[in-house]
Amino acid sequence: MIATLSRKKVWIPLVLVVAALATGAVLAGRAMSASQDADGAVSVHNQNQDPEAVSSYWTEERMRSAKPAPMPNPED
Fold this sequence. Notes:
The protein has 76 residues and is an all-alpha fold. It is built from three helices and no strands.
């Protein structure tokens, strides 16, 4: 009986610690997803253009004069 009580004394705090860690992980995940604003959101674009039309549009001259799209700066 004493051995059973000492096992319970070990298991109860262990279960409480694991439950607290799991709860903290869930809450942290929710906080991270809730804090994302429109700048961090994912957007999807469907392209239905003919590949040959795209290839004929992008001539060598257009490719040379093309400007890169603005990219997000992680330092901002």
